[in-house]
Write a structure and sequence with these properties.
about 300 residues, alpha/beta, 2 domains, two-stranded parallel sheet, EC 2.3.1.31, Class_I_gatase-like, MetA_family, methionine biosynthesis
């Protein structure tokens, strides 16, 4: 939340140079406050786990948030009970008339398919187009980020020779961006994907800001259109054991998968990994809700 300071205070210039969020008394006195309406398009197979991952982060701010869960009509989930979906999820035709302050589009296990081969691609495109006028800011995660980069900006993904799987070190590339306020110079984050986006294409694109990247994992956090679209290629929302569960599951299925890098203590998969990214996960979601949703969304939508 912002610091409210008297108008003309000399320290204001110092704080602004350090990218500290400040607000003068006039703006503070005229702010209207209401609950934020956040839409979550959950494309992950184990939807209940993803719900917990995201709600844990969205619920740890002073802001009141109303959540609406969205499912696709053109693809039926095989890993979540129909009763759960019927009880807690809605479809796009049922909400497309509404305005939302923020939206999250999750990853999906379809990254090795060409975008247009995904059975709900046309439906997703319609939703992404709709966000331009009906959502203040949309946060895209993993495959959802790649889908947004492809649809909105024409940046395609490519298949990696080896899966990007593990917990990698990242650096901040743009300290002026509000989304990264409070971040350490270096921090870690989990990744789990078979594809990547070309760094050179992102840097060259006039509408995309590369905010953070990893030497091993590539581009991580990107922003476009003053934060209306935010793309994150990894999974800060993951719990400590999420990569371990994925690794042991695939091993049990006899699939070829290497041990997640920089993850298990002493590279021993029998040891319990620790969560070294939790604070930055909470910080990123808090910054998104505050600076890109709460501070930007209209009190009353037209």
């Amino acid at each position: 939340m912002p610091i409210t300071i008297p108008q003309g205070l000399p320290a204001r210039e110092i704080l602004e140079e350090e990218n500290i969020f400040i607000m003068d008394e006039n703006r503070a006195q005229n702010q209207d406050i209401r609950p934020l309406n956040i839409l979550i398009l959950n494309l992950m197979p184990q939807k209940e786990k993803t719900e917990a991952h995201l709600l844990r982060l969205l619920g740890n701010t002073p802001l009141q948030v109303n959540i609406t869960f969205l499912k696709t009509e053109t693809h039926q989930s095989k890993n979540t009970s129909p009763l759960h979906l019927e009880q807690f999820y809605t479809t796009f035709p049922e909400i497309k008339h509404r305005k939302f302050d923020g939206m999250i589009i999750t990853g999906a296990p379809v990254e090795l398919l060409d975008f247009r081969q995904v059975d709900y691609w046309d439906e997703l495109v319609e939703m992404m187009e709709w966000t331009k006028t009906n959502v203040t800011s949309t946060l895209h995660i993993c495959w959802g980020a790649q889908a947004a980069l492809y649809h909105h900006f024409g940046v395609d993904k490519y298949e990696l020779p080896d899966k990007c799987f593990g917990v990698f070190n990242h650096t901040v590339k743009d300290w002026s961006e509000k989304l990264l306020r409070g971040f350490d110079d270096q921090y870690v984050a989990p990744h789990s994907r078979h594809t990547n986006v070309p760094m050179k294409d992102l840097i060259a694109h006039p509408d995309i800001k590369l905010l953070s990247a990893s030497e091993e994992a590539g581009a991580f956090i990107m922003s476009a259109n003053s934060g209306k679209q935010i793309m994150i290629t990894g999974h800060l929302e993951y719990e400590a054991a999420t990569l371990a569960e994925e690794y042991h599951r695939d091993r049990a299925k006899g699939l070829a998968i290497h041990m997640p890098r920089h993850y298990f203590p002493k590279d021993n998969p029998e040891k319990q990994p620790s969560n070294k990214w939790r604070s930055h996960a909470h910080l990123l979601f808090s910054n998104w809700l505050n600076y890109y949703v709460y501070q930007e969304t209209p009190f009353k939508w037209d």
